[in-house]
Design brief:
Layout lengths: L36 H29 L1
InterPro entries: Oxidoreductase-like_N, OXLD1
Protein name: Oxidoreductase
Organism: Crenobacter luteus
């Protein structure tokens, strides 16, 4: 990615995090793998919820400052 002059950067760009996609049921083999695809999904979901809460707090801060 090329370096852009600071004048072309948008400091307000703060997209909402995207939720992870749940794995298809057939991706789990049911043999108790460690980690299971569902374990990995739960970790991604926990991370997403934390990122979403932080994003929402930033948005609330921006709205309060306006």
């Amino acid at each position: 990615m090329p370096d852009l002059p600071m004048t072309e950067l948008d400091d307000d760009f703060d997209p909402m995090p995207e939720a992870p996609e749940a794995p298809a049921d057939e991706l789990c083999c049911g043999s108790g793998c460690e980690p299971c695809v569902w374990d990995l999904y739960q970790e991604q979901l926990t991370d997403y919820r934390a990122r979403l809460a932080a994003w929402q707090a930033r948005q609330d801060g921006k709205a309060g400052a306006a």
